[in-house]
Amino acid sequence: MTSDLRVRQKIGKYRIERRLGQGGFASVYQAMDTIQGIRVAIKIPHSQYTTDNVLSEFRKEIRTTQNLDHENILPIKDASIIEDRLVMVFPLGDETLLNRLQRRLSVDTAMDITEQIIRATAHAHAHRIIHCDIKPDNVIVFPGNRIRLADFGIAKVSQKTIQGSGTGTVGYMAPEQAMGKPSRRSDVFSIGLIVWRMLTGQWPEWPFEWPPRGYTKLRGRIHPEFITFMRKAIEPNPRKRFRDAEQMLSVFLRLKARTLRHAKVRRRASA
Fold this sequence. Notes:
By secondary structure, the protein is an alpha+beta fold. Helices cover 41% and strands 18% of the residues. It is built from 9 helices and 9 strands. It has helices at residues 52-65, 97-100, 107-126, 154-164, 175-178, 184-200, 215-218, 224-233, 245-270; strands at 10-11, 14-22, 26-33, 38-45, 78-82, 85-91, 95-96, 139-142, 146-149. Strands 1-2-3-4-6-5 form a 6-stranded antiparallel β-sheet, with no helix packed on it. It has a 3-stranded antiparallel β-sheet with strand order 7-8-9. A hairpin with a 3-residue loop joins strand 2 (14-22) and strand 3 (26-33). The model is unreliable at 164-169 (pLDDT under 50).
């Protein structure tokens, strides 16, 4: 069974306003906190996954990740059992990056979003925490193009649970993660896929052979060194990738300015 709730239905102090999305593990809603008078996002796992074992895993992961205090990481405002449902409450953003990708992104905006995603992940990696499910759905866009990465810890539990039921998919995982061996390098791979999609509009697919779809769109438009940066990030062999998001961030910051200058020059030349 899914966790479908009706518009205007109340669960605890939260009144449902609309469903924002639904996945194999949970549904996400926009809701009104009727006590504080603010809108929030709430995530509710489908009932078949709310078992004692899953709840125990959630408690452990939430406690592990609750100290990830960073401007680009979406905090959990509350996690409670309400009416026999696990209800996780988050600040409400404008949209997900998946929604944002339906509209054109400038190189400047793509680079800004990229930096924020890498900074969030680098902060987690510095605390020895792997996200395990970095994808556009889990990147929340707030006003001013501020990015907050969602589902730290939650992603790990949901993946393990869904895969254990035999309904998991490879999705945006690195090859080694799909085989049950995630690492910091797996998060690097997922970020690389997102960056590639933002700059090309294409999504590389297994077996991730070089060059992926969209490569011809990049040539000339994007600085060659940044293309090399993306190639290293989405290398199928994890040993050939950046070791973690901290190393990835260091290289990104070194390349960012020249990549933006290169794109600006190319725009002027084609005007």
